[in-house]
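Minutes, structural biology subgroup

Action item carried over from last meeting: produce the structure token record for Glycoside Hydrolase Family 92 protein (Pycnoporus cinnabarinus). EB confirmed the sequence was re-checked against the source entry. Recorded below for completeness.
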Amino acid sequence: MRHRLLLLGLLQIGIAWATVLHRRSAPAAFSKPLSVAVDYVNPRLIGNGGYSSGGGSGGMVPSTAPPFAMTRWVAQTRQNYVSVTLYNYTNSVVYGFQGTHQPAIWMGESGPAVVVPGAGEVRSVFEQRGMSFSHAEEITTPSYYSVIMNASEGGQIYAEQSATSRVGHLRFRFENTKTPYVLVEATRAFVLGSADPTNVTYPRGSILIDPRRREITGHNPERQDFIIGPNAAPGFAGYYCARFDAPFGGFGIAQNGTITENETHGDGAVLSGFARFAPGTKTVNVRVGVSFISIEQARRNVDKEIPDGTTIEETAEKTRAAWAEKLDRIKVEGASHEDAEVFYTGIFHTLQYPYEQDEDGHYYSGYDDAVHAGSSYTGYSIWDTFRAEWAWQILLAPERISGMVQSMLQDYKEGGWLPMWKNIVETNIMVGTHADSLIAEAVAKGFRDFDLDTAYNAVHKDATVPPQDDWTISYSDRQQGVGYEVRAGLSSVYAERGWVASDLHSEAASRTLDYAFSVVASASGKNADAAFFRARAWNAPFTIFNNATGFMEARVANGSWAGQDAGWTEGDEWAYTFDVVHDIPGLIEHKGGNASFAEFLDQHFNGGHNDHRNEPSHHIPYLYSLAGAATKSQERIREVAKVKYNNSINDLSGNEDCGQMSAWYIFSAFGFYPVNPVSATYVIGTRPFFEKITIDLPNAKRPLVITSPGAPNKPYVRSVTVNGRMLDSPVLQHADIASGGSIHFEMSAEPQAWASDTLVSGTLRPSPFPCVIL
Ligand SMILES: *[C@@H]1O[C@H](CO)[C@@H](O)[C@H](O)[C@H]1NC(C)=O
Ligand SMILES: *[C@@H]1O[C@H](CO)[C@@H](O)[C@H](O)[C@H]1NC(C)=O
Ligand SMILES: *[C@@H]1O[C@H](CO)[C@@H](O)[C@H](O)[C@H]1NC(C)=O
Ligand SMILES: *[C@@H]1O[C@H](CO)[C@@H](O)[C@H](O)[C@H]1NC(C)=O
Ligand SMILES: *[C@@H]1O[C@H](CO)[C@@H](O)[C@H](O)[C@H]1NC(C)=O
Ligand SMILES: *[C@@H]1O[C@H](CO)[C@@H](O)[C@H](O)[C@H]1NC(C)=O
Ligand SMILES: *[C@@H]1O[C@H](CO)[C@@H](O)[C@H](O)[C@H]1NC(C)=O
Ligand SMILES: *[C@@H]1O[C@H](CO)[C@@H](O)[C@H](O)[C@H]1NC(C)=O
Ligand SMILES: *[C@@H]1O[C@H](CO)[C@@H](O)[C@H](O)[C@H]1NC(C)=O
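Output recorded by EB:
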């Protein structure tokens, strides 16, 4: 045992050392493979201090938990609600440690558990219980976090945090304090939308203290997104069981700041329970099991995931191993320290959503408010993730793909529809039914371990059945009091003429384009339907292509144009005119051929219209390649990567959006991107960001090795060889990479003819855009 403890001690020292290393400015470059990729994850800095809108923030937080964990634990530096994250680098006070289900900025929290250490008089009121800390005394890794805080009675509290999927593990060490305690918060007031801080709601929960078992248990029905979406989920709650390793010296209940000593039970709003420990107590460990099913289940989760006697070092080691299992599969050579941090932190971000919603083979479903057998996931923003995040998860986490699809099919069975944006239940956020795309892509890439017939019925329903009262409800963004939004506008002009009418529905032009992107029928082999959907998919987008302006534009029911400001979902006519990813040749034809399409792309970029902060622009730099102007894709992609990603607190130019921002970076670093994800192809972009990348894909027999010697000084692609075969077009098949192999880029310092006929034929001047060399 001593030996083991020594090893674990070294692990902690290793973690601390790695962090110290991160704080120093790192060596400019290193040439040996990164063996411990986990140490390059920088969860504290990357993406959590910038502006919540208008760019400059990933909106992520430094959380500890394994990949896809049901609960992630985070030091809470402010009260979190929609558009406000619970940790913000600009803050200097910790108010507790939260087991959050929303470690990000874009949606509301659901049933969190919060644990607050303290010393002195018990302080339950949020504003009064904060303790100052300094970033210099924080350690942040994916598996372990620690911070030193000043206690209110003097002295310090050294808090350490780790977690498994459903259980948080905290260790509090009290230095020079007299009366240590730990408070467990059941319920709090929360702001309904950030616009009006006085508009609050008070969920009513419960708390029960059992000094004999050293447990504080309770439940919290808070669901901040309850005002949107069709599912009331009346039985929803987060349940928890906090088990301590030290005997209680005293205890009580706090309700909205009023303390009742020796009380073991409380119900209501703004409620907490606390345990005091004998004066002089040095260390208190608490493990907090979280459940969506019951307190008993939360207790079972503790016993199963972090049984009595487990040290926090053991928990951290296990969680670190879970990250290493994924991150060490990818080795990069020739990366600067900054690039390596951006790259591996990106991977860390791509493996958080959707998160596990099942416990011990069962899950609570908010769709029918019942507990079912099976596994389940929640926390999607499919409008974002269908682009590249899903393709990336298919490569790096294939063992979860069928289960994730099966989970969406359960949502369909229990709620009647596939999810759009599921945050416990449907929230109707964004437009389109891109779950269809996820399922089609999974099928196209060989995943079959789910009920294919149900899958077909579910996507067929999306494509053919309009929402309730489709003629009279516009389904505007976050409209309250409406049913499932799905393909709003399907029953109006769309079915007959091909566009969603902008006088009847919000975001009509974006809807028209997004609804067209559905090729699922062919993937499922229903050929009669396939012909119908193909015709629709190929025709509908161009019903809103305005020949007079050369842009997509919304139309009203009678066919008139609605103007270029109307009908967009988080984008404009520039981004959305390129939104025909399944038919780029058709779009090129409408734009007058390759040369004028490439010129249009130049106008888009040179005019500052490419808004990489949001997803509709993500595929656009790749489109030059499909118009015979690959050298220009090579320039643009490098530029976007350099300008929009770095390892500062403002690192991501836009919200991470469940991993899509980082998935763009990761694929671009490999040298290719899934422009049309359901086609099972990738478009080759720039040279890879690093000289050599070795990817040990879980389902592949051999590693995928991507080489591009001399790349840093040679930005242009001369040729690409895949498993020894020269590529004459810039398109890779999924089969080329899925089972490993080699991709070799020959690079050049000068623009090359490869895949660039349009430019070489002299119809275009060389780009004035400066080429970026990293
Ligand atoms: C972090 O806090 C700063 C200062 O209050 C604020 O400007 C920024 O929007 C916050 N960032 C996030 C992601 O909440
Ligand atoms: C904590 O308290 C000590 C001693 O009073 C003080 O020197 C230090 O600056 C405080 N730290 C923070 C982060 O407030
Ligand atoms: C509070 O906010 C909710 C959600 O935005 C809104 O429906 C409600 O009308 C607001 N209440 C008041 C009193 O402003
Ligand atoms: C809690 O107390 C504050 C002031 O002390 C009061 O404004 C608020 O309404 C109370 N909340 C509840 C839910 O009782
Ligand atoms: C709480 O219980 C303890 C132990 O029985 C007792 O000493 C103490 O006086 C009680 N406190 C109050 C406020 O009732
Ligand atoms: C645009 O022009 C093409 C070719 O002349 C025509 O087929 C198409 O109907 C026109 N589109 C619209 C929306 O008017
Ligand atoms: C079509 O509808 C728009 C408003 O929805 C109206 O301004 C326009 O005059 C109508 N055009 C025709 C030809 O009826
Ligand atoms: C446009 O470029 C693509 C990609 O190089 C090529 O396949 C296609 O044939 C070109 N189209 C025309 C009309 O030249
Ligand atoms: C990092 O990227 C953000 C977002 O694009 C940008 O605002 C910031 O200036 C960049 N910081 C550095 C040091 O390059």
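Discussion: Residues 2-23 form the longest helix (22 residues).
Next step: EB to file the record with the rest of the batch.
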